[in-house]
Amino acid sequence: MFAITSWVQVMLGQHILPRNYHPAVDLMPERELNELVAGVADVIASCVEAMPMHAQFLARYGQAARQQP
């Protein structure tokens, strides 16, 4: 039903933490792994920067919801 990455999020959301990391990590050179993680961090930062602040979101969409019959 879920991809592996989705299951990780579900489990973490339930406070079920892994005891170890996936052994495939050892197959990737550390430099490449660091670049991958940095790339993910950059994507997340870009997405967060593009999003409105919480209060702005609520003002925009909360007001629209109140106006609907």
List the helices and strands and how they pair.
Layout: H1 4-13, H2 30-50, H3 54-67
General description of the model:
It is a single chain. 65% of the residues lie in helices and 0% in strands. The protein contains three helices and no strands. The longest helix has 21 residues, at 30-50. It starts with a helix and ends with a helix.
Keyphrases for this structure?
69 residues; mainly alpha; 65% helix
Please summarize the sheet with the most strands: none
According to DSSP, the number of beta strands is: 0
Number of helices, counting only DSSP H or I runs of 4 residues or more: 3
Percent of residues in beta strands: under 5%
> Structural class, judged by helices and strands?
mainly alpha
| CA radius of gyration | 19 Å
Straight-line N-to-C gap: 36 Å
Low-confidence stretches: none
Approximate helicity band:
55-70%
- Based on CA inertia axes, which overall geometry fits? elongated
The helix/strand order is HHH
Mean pLDDT over the residues: 88
